[in-house]
Design brief:
Blueprint lengths: L1 H24 L8 H24 L4 H15 L2 H13 L3 H25 L4
Helix pairs in contact: 1-2, 1-3, 2-3, 2-5, 4-5
């Protein structure tokens, strides 16, 4: 039960932060919903740092990982919103919005995990 509560708390915090970012940064008049993009890339960086630091130091236990990685990063990042936003682009025939958003998100998010793992070596 304690572990589920840790995921719940972390997920709630991450979700609220993503919601605020989306309110401030998402605007479909722009080519890219920057709030979702930033949440996914920043969350990928954070999870890379968390797991990199955990592997290096051994100081983070399972409860820390559940709170920070599964909970916070899981609530903060959003593949479902990303998928829905791509659906909107495709449904509207906006291939010039869809392609850059999709490609940039994948490249930046995956690169951010690697960067986070690298940065964790210096923490």
């Amino acid at each position: 039960m304690k572990q589920a509560l840790l995921v719940f708390l972390g997920g709630g915090l991450g979700s609220v932060l993503r919601y605020w970012m989306s309110l401030k940064l998402n605007n479909f008049e722009n080519a890219i919903p920057y709030g979702t993009l930033l949440a996914n890339v920043l969350g990928s960086l954070i999870i890379g740092i968390i797991f990199g630091y955990s592997a290096k130091s051994g100081l983070l236990n399972e409860n820390h990982s559940l709170l920070l990685a599964t909970g916070f990063c899981g609530g903060f990042t959003t593949f479902s919103t990303f998928a829905y936003e791509n659906h909107i682009y495709l449904k509207g025939g906006d291939y010039f919005g869809f392609l850059p958003y999709m490609i940039v998100t994948f490249i930046l998010a995956i690169s951010a995990v690697f960067l986070g793992m690298y940065v964790s070596k210096f923490i």
